[in-house]
Amino acid sequence: MNLKKSLDLSSEIHCILTAEGLLSEFNSFFAHTLEYTSDELYRKSFLDLIVPEDLSDFYRKIQRLSPDRIRPLKVRLQKKSGESIRLNGKILQEPTGELHLAASIAMMSDAPLARFRRFFDMSLLDIVIITDANWQLTYANKGFAKTLGYPWDEIQNASLFSFIYPHDRQIMQEFLHRLRENEGENGELAIRCLHRQEGYRWLSWSMIYNRKNLYAIATNITKKKEQETQIKELLSKTIQQNNRLKESEDSLRKTLKQLEIRNFELDQFIYKVSHDMRAPLTSILGLINLAKIDGTNLGTMREYIDMIETSTNRLDIFIKSLLDFSRNERLETVIEKIDIQKLISEIFQNMEFMANYEKIQKHVQVIGKHDFYNEYLRVRIILNNLLSNAIKYQDRSKSSHSIKIIIDLTHANQVLIQFEDNGIGIAHEVRSNIFDMFYRGTELADGSGLGLYIVKQTIEKLAGEIRIESIPKMGTQVNVMLPNRSPDKIVDKIH
């Protein structure tokens, strides 16, 4: 962009003087203000434009100038019509002797309002208004009327606030108050102004309050604001779409991870099931073959039958564990009122034929009187597996065997069931694996390796917790916390 175009964009007076004081460059605002054409001003002596009374002062300022140093300048110039204007600005001398002058028109305290009106009516300014101390319009140019869609004669003497968008009036009120408090200082504000027929327009204002009058110029920035709004909306939609895509991606990643885990568990499950089911079946088939070979010896036959029975019971226990596992995965949510003490008694009765059952001393204590509601079948699976473990893993070196159970119903929102036995306990080095599928912590008792895995999975489905503390050779304590759920529909059958 060349210098002439740059100067024409400015709202201040700019000019460049040769070393002889002739105008070599100037902007349109300068020519328009002095009421000359560009041809009339070009190469014209700047001294001829200065009010005679200010010439001597201007000479002194010029003589004190030094190259590349900016100095303040106040001078009055004469328009072509003979009217004078006062400039406040700065002047710079180049090493070549050229002078650069930039200034704004100063408001003279003795100038009547009509003089400012003529100045503000210049076509270089889009929107101009003047108000009194009560913010009543004393002047508004045609640009203001045209921008807001009003006939020019309708806006005279109206309140400035009648043109401000209602939601922005408080902002304008506070802004004008600050201008009044800081008289003479310029303030800028972008605000919405009401259009007579079409909503509002965004106007960017530059205002100054001086001697009980507000002087303001503005430009229409509605298109810019609309573009900003569209960009913000587009950006917001883009961010929302990106967030949705990220959520979908995260969800897909989690699903794939879960599928990978499930596939691994399924492979492990099939391998373990086939191995653990074939082992007792192979034993049974082998014993049958031996019985056929040695079929005449009744004593040996009885031993074979007992061993077949043992293998069959192992297979039966394993199949029951598989059924519990399958049932836990597929059970529908049915909330029922559960009598835990009664349920524990029924489970013990079903275990009467387990090895060494008759040696166990059972103690069941109930604390609190709140009713308990939850999923009966899943609660039964949990209790059945824990009591079965307590019976299977007795310490046969001890003279007495006990299982103590405390049912704490003192809290309305949860139940705590505590199991304590004096069995063989759990070794510290295997404790972190006891909830893994098909994991056996000891070979001292037959088991499927599914019991505690099923217990943990079932408790998690019920949004409960389980904690196990154990000391080898001393015993094990299991704490199970289950939520007491208030059902929308209570099943009539009470367990």
- Please compute the radius of gyration using only Cα atoms: 49 Å
**Spatial order of strands in the largest sheet:** 2-1-5-4-3
Q: In which range does the helix fraction lie? A: 40-55%
CATH superfamily of the largest domain: Histidine kinase-like ATPase, C-terminal domain
**Largest sheet descriptor:** 5 strands, antiparallel
What is the CATH topology assignment of the largest domain? Heat Shock Protein 90
Overall mean pLDDT stands at 81
Count of domains: 4
How far the N terminus sits from the C terminus, by CA atoms, comes to 92 Å
Q: How many beta-strand elements?
A: 17
- Helix tally? 12
* CATH architecture grouping of the largest domain: 2-Layer Sandwich
CATH class of the largest domain: Alpha Beta
* Strand residue content: 15-25%
> SSE order, as H and E?
HEEHHHEEEHEEHHEEEHHEHEEHEEHEE
Q: Any low-confidence stretches, pLDDT <50, length ≥5? A: 108-112, 489-494
Overall 3D geometry?
Answer: rod-shaped
Find the structural class using helix and strand composition: alpha+beta
Topology:
Layout: H1 3-8, E1 13-17, E2 23-26, H2 28-34, H3 38-41, H4 55-63, E3 70-78, E4 84-93, E5 99-106, H5 113-120, E6 127-131, E7 137-140, H6 142-148, H7 169-181, E8 186-194, E9 200-210, E10 213-220, H8 222-293, H9 298-330, E11 335-337, H10 340-350, E12 360-367, E13 373-375, H11 376-392, E14 401-408, E15 414-421, H12 451-461, E16 465-471, E17 475-483
Parallel strand pairs: 12-14
Antiparallel strand pairs: 1-2, 1-5, 3-4, 4-5, 6-7, 6-10, 8-9, 9-10, 11-13, 14-15, 15-17, 16-17
Helix pairs in contact: 8-9, 9-12, 10-11, 11-12
